[in-house]
Amino acid sequence: MPSFKIDTSTAVVFVATAPEPKVKNFATGERALNPEGKPLSTVGLLVSDEGEGNLLKVTVPEDGFPEGLVPGMPVRVVSLKARDWENVIKGEKRSGISFSAVAITPAA
Fold first, then answer.
1. What is the pTM of this model?
2. In this structure, how many other beta carbons lie within 10 angstroms of the beta carbon of residue 10?
């Protein structure tokens, strides 16, 4: 599926929730990995731009963010992308938009 770049150059971005390991299989606890085999984590970000604020759950490689990210910390998002998804979970069709980034860094 195609992904779309999101321009955050004029946005103010804050950590909403600290990074957590992304789980691929909840039954086994298997960790999600990116195509390069790096473990993935999710970080909640509050992105505010042009008078609108959105809470996004962003997937980032574990080596793509510094230790010590805490709620309220201003950050920058490197290469934020959105991608739509569709899945059947327990016989129910679900869909949504997933967000990913190459890195999250402290704001200057």
1. 0.89
2. 7
